[in-house]
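User: Sequence recovery, please. Input:
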């Protein structure tokens, strides 16, 4: 059976330069290749990859409500990631919460309104 080797989220953004700066400067991603002059930014951090495509006339993700969720990222230390991002986010993210489904989570919004959720598996204590 064929294996799925990698994934990339493809996100429409209104201002490619500003969105690329957010993903690099705030979220800690790096540019994989290219310089954005072709309307695309290919970025990655660890095993997560994203393609930002400039679509200045498309409705912003912030206008599409629940459909603005684009990724759930499982991390190895959600509290450390929250602390790291909190130093750079323009608006503070709510602190991670241990949920009853066994994940400690927090979420952020990009300037375009795409919502990302980060979670770390935790051991759920039986009462």
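Assistant: Recovered sequence (127 residues):
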């Amino acid at each position: 059976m064929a294996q799925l080797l990698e994934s990339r989220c493809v996100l429409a953004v209104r201002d490619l330069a500003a969105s690329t700066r957010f993903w690099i400067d705030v979220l800690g991603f790096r540019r994989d290749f290219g310089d954005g002059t072709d309307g695309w930014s290919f970025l990655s951090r660890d095993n997560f990859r994203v393609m930002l495509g400039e679509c200045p006339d498309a409705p912003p993700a912030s206008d599409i409500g629940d459909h603005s969720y684009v990724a759930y990222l499982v991390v190895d230390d959600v509290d450390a990631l929250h602390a790291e991002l909190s130093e750079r986010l323009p608006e503070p993210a709510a602190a991670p919460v241990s949920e009853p489904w066994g994940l400690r989570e927090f979420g952020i919004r990009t300037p375009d309104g795409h919502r990302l959720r980060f979670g770390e598996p935790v051991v759920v204590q039986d009462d």
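The domain at 68-127 is CATH 3.30.720.110 (Signal recognition particle alu RNA binding heterodimer, srp9/1).
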